[in-house]
Design a protein that fits this description.
It contains ten helices and 21 strands. With 442 residues, it is an alpha+beta fold.
Length: 442
């Protein structure tokens, strides 16, 4: 993600700043009135927010749930936002970076409630990073730094204020004073909320071929145990699926294949694992094998080819719950599955490939040739060849860009998704419709 979303989010805050400033301090409980004369109205430095002199360079969000902390930290590097706490994976999900920055920088103190630390638990503003605190009453902590690691704002957002919709208790991380503040939305430290949840630019309607290879690799013997493989095809999105591997007494289950294709198009990641820099031995420990015969996942592969000419190769590796994965929002991390992805392009699968007229046959002996017509036909064909070459080059560039991303990371998917994407043979085929049913359909 570029810096632009951040600037826009902060700008939205900055343009609202004049409405924040009033001639009086926030409401203060009477016993604290003398103690807090001249309170700054913003948690962030208003001058810096207003001038945009310091771009946000790093954001950290910490939440507390089920007796454990969840933290995410995103950093701007070379003009793009990366999740430093998740192997520098791109923070490319919607506009979460700009949304979070604007949300935190826009907090304004409304009413001072207390400066008694004993009240922090009840108000839900206990620091989620405090290792000495009890589990109860922990809030959400958000910290923003500029590009030079100067803290712009560091706040803990707590519970909701009764009878004040949208207001929560908020305090600065280094202060005991608790205020009410209007808080828009909720902070999130979940990995999936900060990334594009589906790594594939794939539409289910575009898929015209699916290749399922259900096998296991015997790592000790170095052999492949093929349980079954099938190639399923259709002419267009409305056509029925067919397969040469269909048993004689069965037909392809269209709904089952549509479900597999739809699952890939709508797949949500559980996490990522580092792939960059791993050698063959390390890859094999993750269930991915690179051999002279090609790449293998130790639990099979699914290949989907689209009418744009792209084929997505999904290799299924080992179960992961180890330190290689950085999962923090999975209830069953030990059941998640490593998946490697690779994309290729084939002209013969690209239905949008520009048409090129066949080359003119040489004239027969004694045949009169229209030189001008032949010249125009040759020029037209040359232009078609150029358009075709540019089209193929564009497709190949897209493949290169995608594979740069796929080469750096493995994806971690839920076990239920793995089971759906690598089906048993019996789930791809079904009994043919009865004659009465077929007649009714007609």
């Amino acid at each position: 993600m570029k810096i632009l979303p951040i600037v826009l989010a902060v700008l939205a805050v900055a343009t609202a700043i004049p409405a924040w400033f009033v001639d009086k301090a926030p409401n203060v409980v009477p016993e604290l009135e003398d103690k807090y004369i001249g309170i700054e109205l913003e948690f962030a430095d208003a001058a810096e927010v207003r001038s945009l002199g310091d771009d946000v360079g790093k954001i950290r969000v910490v939440t507390w749930d089920k007796a454990e902390t969840t933290m995410i930290e995103v950093v701007q590097k070379d003009g793009a936002w990366q999740i430093a706490s998740r192997l520098d994976y791109p923070a490319d999900g919607a506009n979460k970076v700009g949304e979070t920055a604007g949300q935190v920088l826009g907090l304004r103190k409304l009413r001072l409630v207390t400066d008694d630390t004993a009240a922090h638990v009840k108000l839900g503003v206990v620091d989620p990073l405090d290792s000495n605190a009890d589990d109860e009453g922990r809030g959400q902590r958000a910290t923003l730094w500029d590009g030079g690691d100067k803290v712009l704002v560091d706040v803990i957002i707590g519970g909701m204020v009764d009878d004040s919709p949208g207001q929560r208790y908020v305090r600065e991380a280094d202060s005991a004073a608790v205020y009410t503040a209007q808080v828009s939305g909720s902070l999130s430290a979940k990995f999936i909320d900060w990334v594009e949840p589906n790594p594939f630019d794939l539409e289910a309607d575009h898929v015209l071929r699916a290749m399922v290879e259900n096998y296991s690799i015997d790592e000790t013997a170095g052999t492949q145990e093929m349980r079954f493989q099938a190639v399923l095809k259709r002419n267009d999105k409305d056509a029925n699926w067919t397969s040469d591997q269909t048993p004689g007494d069965k037909v392809v289950d269209d709904g089952a294949i549509d479900s597999i294709v739809g699952k890939v198009a709508d797949l949500r990641l559980a996490n990522v694992a580092m792939r960059r820099g791993l050698g063959a031995a390390q890859l094999s420990q993750l269930g991915i094998f690179v051999t002279e015969q090609g790449v293998f996942g130790n639990e099979g592969v699914l290949r989907l080819s689209s009418n744009l000419g792209y084929t997505y190769h999904l290799f299924f590796g080992e179960v992961t719950g180890s330190a290689t994965s950085t999962g923090d929002d999975s209830a069953s991390a030990d059941a998640d599955r490593i998946m490697a992805v690779w994309v290729s392009y084939a002209e013969q699968d690209d239905t949008s490939l520009p048409v090129v007229a066949p080359e003119s046959a040489p004239p027969a002996e004694g045949e009169e040739v229209n030189a001008e017509a032949a010249k125009q036909a040759a020029a037209k064909r040359a232009q078609q060849l150029k358009q075709r070459a540019e089209h193929v080059a564009s497709r190949q560039k897209t493949v290169e860009q995608l594979n740069v991303k796929y080469a750096d990371y493995f994806y971690v998917i839920r076990d239920a998704d793995f089971q759906a994407l690598r089906p048993e043979a019996g789930k791809l085929f079904t009994d043919p419709p009865k004659e009465d049913d077929a007649a009714a359909d007609e």
